[in-house]
Amino acid sequence: MLNPTRYQITFNKLHLYKKIRALASSHSICGWSSFTSISNQNHGSETPQGLEQNIADKNVAIFWDLDNKPPRSFPPYDAALRIKKAAQQFGFVKYMIAYANRHAFSYVPPAIREQRKERKSLNQLENKGIVMPKEPYVCKVCGRRFHNNERFINHFSQIHEREQMKRLNQIESARGKRRLNLVARNAVKMEKYRNAARDILTPKVGYGLADELKRAGFWVKTVSDKPQAADVELRNRMVDMMDRRMVECLVLVSDDSDFVEILKEARMRCLKTVVVGDISDGALKRAADAAFSWQEIMIGKAKKEAVSVVGKWKDRNVLQKLEWTYDPERDKKMHFHAIEDGDSDSDSDIGCFSSDEGESLLGREKNGEWWELGQNQRPPE
């Protein structure tokens, strides 16, 4: 049988749809003038491909050679954020890529080792009761307070770290909708644990370089231990992105002179190039459009200078458009077209005379020269 309730709902939907169509046809507001997609609309000369190209022209890619330029004297997370903020002055930072072998991730800088030694000696003094902390150690997960750093670390490891491992195991063993529900349910707790663990637990490998860069938004890849493996992978990635015209500006964090040819190739393709390194008179900085040091990146000077660099690039682009260029092929084609047009005009002029007119002209020439008057010819009065 016919369901009256279902029929009434369908009738109401059809009635509402007709009202919307009538309103859209009479008032072209809010984009209701046509129910077509953006790809089917024609906006003059600006096509969807042109829009995509305009968006791609503002993209910036950061390529970090961690084997050559790790942030040894600065915290990795802070260094990555400072580089990103400086690169944002050149456009939208869409790609952040870092390459290194496993030795770069397992290496611990001397400054980090000194901090760990000081922390270890301070823990020993706290255990003996010689030194008391000015403020208690507060657990960022549960809020408990401790006056001993070792007890605080043991509490975090035995309780919160085990809870985190239990949550990860549950998510790993689940499938389908149940897995999505577990991830959504534990997302806040897991993020809270990760933020607290960075300041409490010591990384098992190195000083947490890969994890800190990933937290800052970088895509980190570990390459083989072969010599120059990271450089080869990085160069191939840069060439691939240049061939596909995915970015307009390349930011290279390295001091390795092997990337000079890549920077020259990028400039030949009219791409902007920026280098971050410590060698003041290096070959990379001479081949790039702009260069900054680590110190300028960390103190924020590079972010301010990037504004003036972008202004110079804009002025240079305007001058290049106004500059006259000689194109021999184009001038040759224009010259040949002019000659062909002139020949066609002369042929048409010659063809407009008939044979009788030609004989009459020749006859006039036989009677005498044009400046001599005949005997029976009188000058006009």
From TrEMBL:
Pfam family, one: NYN
Residue span of region Disordered: 338-381
SUPFAM superfamilies: beta-beta-alpha zinc fingers
Keywords of this entry: Metal-binding, Zinc, Zinc-finger
Any one GO MF annotation of this record: zinc ion binding
Zinc recorded as keyword: yes
Domain C2H2-type residue range list: 137-165
UniProt keyword Nucleotide-binding present: no
Protein name: C2H2-type domain-containing protein
Source organism: Salvia divinorum
